[in-house]
Amino acid sequence: MSYSxxxxxxxxxxxxxxxxxxxxxxxVVASPALLRSxxxxxxxxxxxxxxxxxxxxxxxxNNKFVKFIDKVRDxxxxxxxxxxxxxxxxxxxxxxxxINDIVAELTNNLKQQVDGLTQDQKRLxxxxxxxxxxxERNRNKYEDELQKKTEVENEFVLAKxxxxxxxxxxxxxxxxxxxxxxxxxxLRRGYDEEIKELQSQIHNTTVVLPANNGRxxxxxxxxxxxxxxYQEVAERGREEAEQWHKKKMDDMTQKAGKHEQELRExxxxxxxxxxxxxxxxxxxxxxxxxxxxxxxxxxxAEQRGQEARDEAKAHIRELEEALSRAKQDMAxxxxxxxxxxxxxxxxxxEIATYRKLLEGEEMRIxxxxxxxxxxxPFDRLDVQGQQPPGTASEELTKVTPPTxxxxxxxxxxxxxxxxxxxxxxxxxxxxxxxxxx
Length: 437
Known about the structure:
By secondary structure, the protein is mainly alpha-helical. It is about 75% helix and about 5% strand.
């Protein structure tokens, strides 16, 4: 965007200000002696009135001219102030903010932190999965060991039941053995009584044998033989009972020893299983604690990541707001600068107009001064006091033209062309070109 303003500067280069180069008409007041020696001059009343009006106009113009000079000075001071402000604004505009670089650097740092937290989260998730797998394996192992323990306990209960049954059988066999022994003793006593009865019958019985029986019956031998048979049967029964009892006792002893050995082994296995269960329980507690710590670490990492993201977003929003405010301030300063430039242009135009008017007035006064001696417009100016019109004390004045005013009041016009290039609210360049007409 380019903005160009054209103003006409009536001042030629290297000229003094209007106030310094302004020359007022010199007024020569005649003395009373000169008036007395001067011939009487007849003054027309109409000329006097015209001169009086012209004098009033000149006085008014002089007052206006003084006011114009003061106003020009004020405008020049304002122009200097505006130029100073413009220079300050231009110096401020040369600064280029690097907010985008700061935001980009902060964004990169936050992205790196987020990436690091994401990697830590993935690593912790992998460790958590491994820990969960280990916990699952330990749980399965614990369940297997618990099942084995249950089976061993069941086997132990069955073995104990079998041992109890065997013990009861042993007690029953002992009772049967006692009954058999008592029965055997009873039979032995019965056999002994029968033998004694038979012996007594044999002793008390008189056997009459026929004469023709040449061979006598030997009952003693029969009794001894029967007794030997009974004893042999009793001994054989006793031996068989003792052997059977001994065999049963040996079998039961072997079974009891075997069951006792199995019971000791089962107790040992149960103790080992209990120790394993305790160890696995401790490991499970440790893994649970580790899992809780990992979950807490993951939650903490997620919370820190979320806080970092929220803080980064808040910082980015603050930077965006600061950037927006900076842009708004820059736009406001640019608008102020353009308004000041417009005001400066208007003031330059107004100053040029006033200077043109002043130079026109100077040229008119110079044209009047070139004519030579004329009647002074101050017809009734009295040095001592005001005299009535038509008296001899009337004063004559001579208008003296300003020295060198004819050569210096030659009109000369200058054109000042200013070109200002702006882009996005920034002043890129400013050029001034003066051309004379």
